Amino acid sequence: MSLSMYQASVPVFVRALTNLHHVLKLGEKHAKDKGVDDATMLQVRLIPDMLPLVKQVQIATDMAKNGTARLAGVDPLKFDDNETSFAELYARLDRAIDYIKSFKPEQIDGSETRAIVLKTRNGELNFEGQAYLLHYVLPNMFFHCTTAYDILRVAGTHIGKQDFIGKP
Fold first, then answer.
1. Is-contact 141 13, C-beta < 8 A?
2. In whole angstroms, what is the distance from residue 82 CA to residue 58 CA?
3. Is the pTM of this model over 0.85?
4. How does 88-121 read in b/e, with b if 16+ C-beta sit within 10 Å?
5. For residues 133 and 8, is the Cβ–Cβ distance under 8 A?
6. Radius of gyration of the chain from Cα atoms?
7. How far apart (Å, rounded) are the C-alpha atoms in residues 26 and 6?
8. Can you say whether residue 73 is alpha, beta or left, with left for phi > 0 and alpha for psi between -120 and 50 degrees?
9. CA 8, CA 101: separation in Å to the nearest integer?
10. CA angle at residue 35 from 34 to 36, to 5 degrees?
11. pLDDT at 1
């Protein structure tokens, strides 16, 4: 049996965002134990020219929710990027997960050749559905999930590979 576009996207997105929620919880606990407020922790960066923790989470959720919607051929649900606390990030993650779970396999399956056009600040990107998922959305989502994890690790949070990957 072959892997469907739905199986290669929705469950993967849900798992990644659920695990991101988990590592953020551990990061929040670490910050509170060390007396670091949310506003400070959410602005931590790996290096000065990289985006802060809050932006990494925002982009990871956008990649997953927007990717799902575009594969289904619908306009993505818009989120404001205005989170200033861990609680607001958890709400964003939960909202993204619920949105992604609302899509049915029949909306995503068969999207391998669906034309997807993204307008970016560097111009237009044109994809077919399978390339969009495998070569754009998944790598971007995992990059931002990993970067959020790395920021929390560098900040001293006691997390490991299993926290990132989750339980099988």
1. yes
2. 9
3. yes
4. ebbebbeebbebbeebeeebbbebbebebeeeee
5. yes
6. 16
7. 30
8. left
9. 13
10. 95
11. 58
The reported pLDDT for the residue numbered 167 is 82
Other Cβ atoms less than 10 A from the Cβ of 30: the count is 17
Domain 5-165 has CATH 1.50.10.10: no
Taking the C-alpha atoms of residue 168 and residue 161, their distance in angstroms, rounded to an integer, is: 13
Name which of 12, 23, 19 is nearest 157 in CA terms.
23
HSE-CB of 64 using CA atoms within 13 angstroms: 32
SS (H, E, C) the chain: CCCCHHHHHHHHHHHHHHHHHHHHHHHHHHHHHCCCCHHHHHCCCCCCCCCCHHHHHHHHHHHHHHHHHHHHCCCCCCCCCCCCCHHHHHHHHHHHHHHHHCCCHHHHCCHHHCEEEEEECCEEEEEEHHHHHHHHHHHHHHHHHHHHHHHHHHCCCCCCHHHHHCCC
Question: Average per-residue pLDDT in the chain?
Answer: 96
d(C-alpha 37, C-alpha 1), whole Å = 49
Record the tokens describing residue 125, joined without a space: 């990107």
Beta 123-128 vs 115-120: how paired, if at all?
Answer: antiparallel
